[in-house]
Design the sequence.
């Protein structure tokens, strides 16, 4: 079993839709959770960073962490074609070792 | 403020050759990480450098090596290139990792193609 599981997609949604992206994990020691956005042939860009359980909101993006279920989510409101990218979840217990999901490809159709 | 910079953007080599990839971290960051992202796969951890020392390496053969210079920039060397080494190589930097968890910031990567 992989430490982090992420549906590869692709996920296609119409412009303006609410997008839900998810990751599950198996290591209960993970405490720090991140979402990165990666455009084709570019490096990942840090979108959201959360510690432990709870919600964090930044503009159109909301990150949720449910440690009891070992489940994290990223919600994108009012999705735009420019949001089309691959979204990677990442997590760590607080050491150098960051574990990344394989990424979900998102397509927002105009 | 400049982000993490990597060079070259693209690199084409033939099997058996050596490749050298370079990375400059964000100013003030002392930790540098190298990751390999092969097509369709997630980011695989290669190496971690901090304060000029190799702190840890991932499950890669010894022909993957590197170093960190006094100005905290870093170099990744891949010897005896194999076809399966073709991938996007990403460098990331953070503040000193020793005290607490820090955010990773990535460069745009070097696309290595081995023919």
Sequence:
């Amino acid at each position: 079993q992989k430490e982090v599981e992420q549906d590869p997609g692709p996920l296609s949604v119409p412009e303006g839709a609410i997008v839900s992206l998810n990751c599950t994990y198996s290591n209960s020691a993970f405490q720090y959770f991140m979402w990165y956005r990666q455009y084709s042939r570019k490096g990942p860009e840090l979108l959201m960073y959360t510690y432990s359980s709870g919600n964090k909101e930044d503009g159109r993006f909301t990150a949720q962490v449910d440690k009891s279920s070992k489940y994290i989510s990223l919600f994108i409101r009012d999705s735009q074609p420019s949001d089309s990218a691959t979204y990677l979840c990442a997590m760590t217990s607080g050491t150098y070792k960051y574990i990344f999901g394989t990424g979900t490809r998102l397509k927002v159709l105009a | 403020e400049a982000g993490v910079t990597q060079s070259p953007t693209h690199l084409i080599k033939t099997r058996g050759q050596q490749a050298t990839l370079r990375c400059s971290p964000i100013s003030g960051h002392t930790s540098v990480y190298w990751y390999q992202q092969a097509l369709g796969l997630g980011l695989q951890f290669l190496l971690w450098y901090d304060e000029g020392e190799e702190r840890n390496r991932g499950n890669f053969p010894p022909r993957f090596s590197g170093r960190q210079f006094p100005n905290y920039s870093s170099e990744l060397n891949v010897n005896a290139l194999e076809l399966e080494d073709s991938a996007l190589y990403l460098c990331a930097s953070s503040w000193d990792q020793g005290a607490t968890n820090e955010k990773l910031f990535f460069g745009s990567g070097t696309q290595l193609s081995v023919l």
About this structure: Residues 40 and 60 of chain A are 22 Å apart (CA to CA).
